[in-house]
C-alpha cells in the first residue's frame, strides 16, 4: 500500500485487512450452512427475521407510534375528582381580612379546569358558571380546600361540581364557603372545519345510588339551562348592557362622591342618589399568565376582574365599614378572549336594599391589532354585596337609588326580581 504522497506504508494495514476479509468469508459460509440445515425442519427459530422497510419521513414515524391505548369511553364518577388546597394570603383579602370573592372564584375555575382535563384529555374552556353563593367568608391565613368532580358529560360539554371549604390552621375545624356548578367545553369534541372528526367525551358512570342522583341532577340542570336560553332567545329583553365609554369620552367618567358621602354621614339617614354616581371602570390587557396553554383567558380570571369592578361601584355607597361579596348570579361567556386582547369592565349599582346592593358589570373585549373593529360583547354579570362593620355584621346602607332613564328603571325592576330568585337559591344552598 502507498500513502498519499506515493511512499510505501511500512505498517501492517494490509495484513489486518486480509485477516478481516477471511473472517467475514468464514461467517458468511457458516450462515449459509445454518440456513440450509433449517430449511426443511419445520421450525423458524433459526430463520433470519424480515427487516421492515425504512420510514420515508419523520411524520410517518410519529404516526406509526402507539398512542398510549384506546381512549376510555366510560369513566366512574369518583375517578374525575380533583382536590387542591390554597393558603389565603393577606394579598388575597381586603381590609377586613376577608378573602375577595373573585379570588375564590378563580380557584374554583382552576380546580374545575383540572377535572375537565381528566375526562377530556385535551384543552377545555369555561362556558358558563351557575349562580354562586358565599355562605361563609374565607378569612386571612386560613386553608382553602377546593374539590371538583365531573357530574355528567354531553356531546362536547360537561358539568363540573365544585365545593369550597375553609379550614382553620389552628383547630382544623372546617366550614363550607361556597358551591358552584360550571360548564366546560372540550375543544377536541367540537366539530369544526379543522376538526371534522370530533372526539366524543366518555360517559360518566355511577357506582351507587348517590352517584346516580348526582348524574340525574346534572342532566336536569342542563335541561333548565337550555330552556332558559331558548326562552331568552324567543323573548329577548331590552339590551341594558353597559357600553365601554372610557375610550370615547374625554371627560372624567368616574364621579366624585366626596360631598355625597359627607352629607349622608352627617344626616345619618337615607339619601337619594343617581345610579350614575356609582359608575366604575376597569381595563385589563390579557397577559400570558392570565390564559391557558392555547392563549385563551381563564374564565376564573375574568370573574375575578368582574368582582373587582363590582366592588369599586359598591364601595361608592358605603359610608363606613366594608363591602362583602355574598353572591354572583349565573354567568355565560358569549365570546372567548385571548392573550393581547383588551377587556373593558363597566359597573353600576342597579338596586339598593336594606344592607345589600346589586351591581351590574358588563364586559367587552377588543382586538387591539385589528383595524376598524368595535369592542365585542363578552358577558353581563350581577354581583351582590352586603355592607358590614368591623366585626363582619351587616349594617344598614344610607343611600337609595333614584333611577332617571328608562334603562335605569328597567335595571332596578329586573334587580328586584333577581333578588327574589337569589334568596330562594341561597336557601337551597344552605340546605345542601
Describe the structure.
- It comes from Tetraselmis chuii.
- It holds the Pfam family 4HBT.
- Keywords: Hydrolase.
- This protein has 432 residues and is α+β, with helices and mostly antiparallel strands.
- The protein folds into 2 domains: 72-225, Hotdog Thioesterase (Thiol Ester Dehydrase, Chain A, Roll); 241-432, Roll (Thiol Ester Dehydrase, Chain A), CATH 3.10.129.
- It has helices spanning 13-38, 58-64, 101-120, 209-234, 258-267, 299-314, 406-430; strands at residues 74-76, 82-87, 124-129, 132-133, 143-153, 157-167, 174-186, 203-205, 271-273, 280-285, 322-328, 331-332, 342-352, 356-366, 376-388, 399-401.
- A hairpin with a 3-residue loop joins strand 5 and strand 6 (157-167).
- Helix 3 runs antiparallel to helix 6.
- It is elongated.
- Mean pLDDT is 84; it is low at 1-9 and 38-68.
Amino acid at each position: 500500500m502507498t500513502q498519499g504522497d506515493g511512499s510505501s506504508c511500512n505498517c501492517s494495514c494490509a495484513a489486518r485487512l486480509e485477516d478481516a476479509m477471511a473472517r467475514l468469508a468464514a461467517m458468511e459460509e457458516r450462515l449459509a450452512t445454518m440456513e440450509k440445515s433449517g430449511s426443511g425442519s419445520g421450525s423458524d427459530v433459526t430463520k433470519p427475521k424480515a427487516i421492515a422497510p425504512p420510514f420515508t419521513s419523520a411524520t410517518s414515524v410519529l404516526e406509526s407510534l402507539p398512542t398510549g391505548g384506546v381512549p376510555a369511553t366510560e369513566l366512574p364518577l369518583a375517578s374525575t375528582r380533583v382536590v387542591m388546597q390554597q393558603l389565603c394570603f393577606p394579598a388575597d383579602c381586603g381590609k377586613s381580612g376577608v378573602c375577595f370573592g373573585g379570588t375564590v372564584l378563580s380557584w374554583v375555575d382552576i380546580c374545575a379546569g383540572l377535572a375537565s382535563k381528566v375526562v377530556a384529555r385535551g384543552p377545555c374552556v369555561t362556558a358558563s358558571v351557575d349562580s354562586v353563593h358565599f355562605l361563609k367568608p374565607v378569612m386571612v391565613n386560613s386553608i382553602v380546600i377546593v374539590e371538583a368532580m365531573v357530574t355528567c358529560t354531553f356531546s362536547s360539554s360537561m358539568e363540573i361540581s365544585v365545593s369550597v371549604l375553609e379550614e382553620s390552621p389552628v383547630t382544623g375545624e372546617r366550614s363550607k364557603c361556597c358551591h358552584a356548578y360550571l360548564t366546560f367545553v372540550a375543544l377536541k369534541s367540537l366539530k369544526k372545519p379543522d376538526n371534522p372528526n370530533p372526539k366524543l367525551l366518555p360517559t360518566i358512570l355511577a357506582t351507587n345510588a348517590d352517584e346516580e342522583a348526582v348524574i340525574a341532577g346534572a342532566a336536569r340542570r342542563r335541561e333548565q339551562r337550555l330552556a332558559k336560553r331558548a326562552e331568552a332567545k324567543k323573548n329577548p329583553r331590552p339590551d341594558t348592557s353597559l357600553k365601554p365609554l372610557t375610550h370615547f369620552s374625554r371627560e372624567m367618567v368616574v364621579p366624585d362622591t366626596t360631598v355625597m358621602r359627607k352629607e349622608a354621614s352627617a344626616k345619618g339617614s337615607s339619601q337619594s342618589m343617581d345610579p350614575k354616581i356609582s359608575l366604575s371602570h376597569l381595563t385589563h390587557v390579557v397577559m400570558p399568565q392570565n390564559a391557558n396553554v392555547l392563549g385563551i383567558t381563564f374564565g376564573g380570571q375574568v370573574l375575578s376582574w368582574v368582582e373587582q369592578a363590582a366592588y369599586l361601584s359598591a364601595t361608592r355607597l358605603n359610608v363606613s365599614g366594608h363591602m362583602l361579596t355574598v353572591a354572583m348570579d349565573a354567568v355565560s361567556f358569549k365570546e372567548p378572549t385571548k392573550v393581547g386582547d383588551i377587556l373593558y369592565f363597566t359597573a353600576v349599582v342597579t338596586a339598593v336594599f336594606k344592607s345589600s346592593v346589586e351591581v351590574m358589570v358588563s364586559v367587552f373585549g377588543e382586538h387591539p391589532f385589528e383595524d376598524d373593529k368595535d369592542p365585542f360583547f363578552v358577558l353581563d354579570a350581577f354581583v351582590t354585596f352586603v355592607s358590614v362593620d368591623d366585626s363582619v355584621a351587616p349594617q344598614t346602607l344610607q343611600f337609595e337609588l333614584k333611577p332617571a332613564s328608562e334603562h335605569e328603571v328597567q335595571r332596578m325592576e329586573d334587580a328586584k326580581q333577581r333578588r327574589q330568585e337569589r334568596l330562594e337559591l341561597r336557601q337551597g344552598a344552605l340546605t345542601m
